[in-house]
Structures
1.
Amino acid sequence: MEPFVFFGGKGGVGKTTVSCAYGVKCARSGLETLVVSTDPAHSVTDVFDQPFGDDPESVDGVDNLDAMEIDPDTEVNRHLEEIRNDLSEQVSAAMVNEINQQLEMAHRTPGAYESALFDRFVEVMREADPYDRVVFDTSPTGSTLRLLGLPEFLEGWIDRLMHKRRKSIDLFEKAAIGNKEPRRVMDGDPVLARLQGRKEFFEFAGGALREDAAFFFVLNPDQLSVNETRRAIAEMREQDLSVRGLVANRLTPEPDPDENGRGARYLRARVATEAERLQQVRETFDPPLVAEITTRTAEVRGDLLDEVAEELDIETDAREPTFV
Ligand SMILES: Nc1ncnc2c1ncn2[C@@H]1O[C@H](COP(=O)(O)OP(=O)(O)O)[C@@H](O)[C@H]1O
Ligand SMILES: [Mg+2]
């Protein structure tokens, strides 16, 4: 299977849990594995009961497994700083102030959060050399996926800008030096360089996601989660990305057949409702169900993680990346 594996889905469905379980599974099968988590509320740090930060560190007690935690707030700020630095070299001080205020506002939107995270993901993929497998506990959605169309869009834009700049530079030089051969001074143009850089970045991202990544969605057996998953699969399809499989998590366990108390009847009714939801998934979704994980009585960590890993019918073999 592809070297990069993403587990998407709504908040709380079990992405981090399943990512860690799959990471453990890959590591136990001998692959050098990295799990990347992004949600500070519940992350690799909680699952492995060990602090992780922005650099990969090895997970205690599991050979071949590293983990890291990306803090979205830090990434948004880093993004902001980068743009600020670029701009301050190009516009007047008065403008910088105005632009700063606009930037601050733009960066408080959910889209900015997602796209800053995505930038960091792409960097991690670029630097994934030491690993056979990298597992991400979230998947790009909506506004971020649309960014993958950016290279084509930017290409036309860059070409037009180049053309304009070239013309104005030519004119300027003609005026200054008469009819002598004008120099081409396009190379050092900071605006074009930045656009070109972003174009290459998203070209790489699109290539790596299409060639070297497999996507799974985690869902819970309720109508809201099923509907949400349907939307997410369609969003991916719009960008020519296919979803490899679905992980149903937090299924209600079946009571023993001879039990008939109130608790047992409640569980049986819930199991029936959930079975209907899962049947709907099997019949109407393209990607297959690759796991059905019951709700444990406590958070999934330690030995429970290995138990859940066993229940994932997802290959662990990893081929070399073709695009990176
Ligand atoms: N099968 C399960 N049984 C028991 N608890 C679970 C199970 N799956 C997830 N949880 C718990 O639910 C909470 C949310 O799971 P998490 O993996 O962080 O979701 P997400 O990453 O999608 O937000 C965590 O406290 C986790 O321990
Ligand atoms: Mg999470």
2.
Amino acid sequence: MEFKLSAASFVSEKNFLPLDQSALYDVFIIGGGPAGLTAAVYCMRKGLSTGIVVKSLGGQVADTSDVENYMGYRHISGVDLVEKFREQVHQFPIGYDEGAEVVSFSEGKIKKVVFSDGRSFSCKALIIASGKSWRRLGVPGEDRLTGRGVAFCTVCDAPLFAGKNVVVVGGGNSGVESAIDLAPLASKVTVIQNLSELTADTVLVKKLNSFNNVEFIYNSIVEEILGEDIVSGVKLRDLGTGRVSEIATEGVFVEIGLDPNSRFVPPSLELNRFGEIPVDCNCRTSLTGVFAAGDVTTVAYKQIIIAGGEGAKAALAAWDYLLKLNEEE
Ligand SMILES: Cc1cc2nc3c(=O)[nH]c(=O)nc-3n(C[C@H](O)[C@H](O)[C@H](O)COP(=O)(O)OP(=O)(O)OC[C@H]3O[C@@H](n4cnc5c(N)ncnc54)[C@H](O)[C@@H]3O)c2cc1C
């Protein structure tokens, strides 16, 4: 293992290298959100041979319209912040793959990370920074009509619904933020909440109430999304009365929160009941040489700056682990 940082590490731009199946990486990182990309910078600055796989660059930040709490920028769009992160990683000759998905990995001194296309990569230390993804309703019509009126990312898709009548499912922060983004564009927004009130932050609820084209349906769940080729309505069940009704709509934004992307981990890796990975204060998981950072972990307060900080810690902890491993060999 080469721990000394070589001058070549700082060649500017166009430095991403294809991942090499015959290499033994010091560190392999799963995920290209703030946690994974920060870990990548710290690993490269330590001179570690590093590979990173990024299913979707930027993760949740790419789905965020405005960021106003990331230090250094009073205001920056999510897309611009992702580009800043990419540039920062891009100065290093790092093994990089975008678009591929990890489906499993094996534990042991040498870990093997397997992609859905069958490729596999070996490493001594692994950093899991796979974040979270939009939770789905799991009702008939949802999968079939995704991209045909069913949407999850308001930042990405709201403009497609300009002048239309849309439904937002969820009355927490995700749902209310989504409705706030849609209200200035859509002709009408109906928020469907399974409880008797919204559970979003007061400041968001106040903002949403300032629009006069937003309606609320409480104590109700979506049982089916209707439509042949495109969305035409939703079937609702009132949880109090049991009454089933249908409302017409041209779009359904499913905004009921996020689930951790941890389905690919082996059963021997401890998860909590939500599927999050418990970590200690050095980002160590229950498996030796496997570290985790960001929203996929049990660390509280899911924020960009926290995910970035955890990514840095995971990389430095991996560096410590590799130093000790090196001494033993
Ligand atoms: C709509 C919205 C608005 C937000 N606004 C803010 C805000 O204003 N300020 C703030 O601080 N935070 C905000 N957040 C939260 C913040 O975006 C997250 O806390 C942060 O992005 C978490 O970073 P992460 O790297 O842990 O995970 P993620 O950002 O989720 O990134 C995970 C990465 O892992 C990849 N991945 C997942 N599974 C696999 C796999 N099997 N194989 C390969 N790659 C995989 C993903 O493609 C992605 O690249 C917002 C979140 C949302 C959804």
3.
Amino acid sequence: MNIVSVESSVVSLPFDMGGPYCRFAGKLWDRLEILLVRVETEDGLVGWGEAFGHASIPATRAALDTIVAPLAIGKDASDILALTREVLHSTHLLGRNGNFVYAWSGIEIALWDLLGKRAGMPVYRLLGGSRHRELEAYSSLLAYGVAEIAARNTLAAADAGYRYIKLHETTREALLHSQRAVQGRGVQIMLDVNCPWDVPTALEMARSMRDDGMYWLEEPVWPPEDADGLARVRECGIPIAAGENVAGVHGFKALIQAGAIDIAQPSVTKLGGIGEAMKVAQLCAAHGLRVVPHSPYFGPGFIATLHIAAALPQAPLVEVLWMDMQANPFAPYVHARGGKLQVPQGPGLGCDPDPDVLARYRVGEVHCITGQEVAA
Ligand SMILES: [Mg+2]
């Protein structure tokens, strides 16, 4: 069945982050936004996807509406891998890691949803899994910049049942405060610093925290594509996680060849969708590396991550941002209970958005790209 329309819309959800709101790419981050992608085929079947996301939504949406969606209209919705090759080749001069690939990721996820609906099977089964219906989540705290607030939220996340908790802080003080807050409870703490340091500084920081027992250190080096620099930091002995900011499977290949990572973090709404994330998982399996997906998402990108994790034999941890949302059109699957997530069992992603929640929290216009616009 051919694709007849691609719609984009934005859902904006109020949330409480357990501390003062922070800034993201220079903008105040006080609403949780999802860039929803709806793909319809000629027989009226609908699939849902999510494209990255957050502060980049206006740019990703422009790439989707003007270039990427028109390339997909009229194409066979089930020809996912070949269509990925075609669309990414058509847009490669516009950027191999950024809004065009993010936009394609949103459509690609929707195509897997369509494929599963047509086959009457959940996506994780299409990907070759069947045993994991429940997954362990890790709680990904937000950036508070204050060690006491990080520790307070660490304790709250442990009380909510999480056994793995990640901080978005850049100080050893924050790490130690949080570890102390949950001492003796068997909770593992990870530290995600988001690429703040040059290599000498990252080495100094890693050496100072070498014996602190953190579960992993994430993205210590600026820029994220400095695989050799990251490999030098890894020699300190702390497990290194990275990958949310590299381009596709070949970005991971470069990290792996440099000996830069212990844990690969493919991000389904950024790197090209479910097919590309599975390629990364296969590459990592061939090199004996762990995969723990990056998923600070609250829509189909999160649900797609659940299916990817459920399809993998190791059933990796799934990242869940630590926050309270007023509502979410993809509840209950975006919420962990007792540190566990349920994998939807319906066909496709198994989780269409709740229309009432969509109607209430959608902002702005729905953009619909059809064959008519493409012909014009
Ligand atoms: Mg990260």
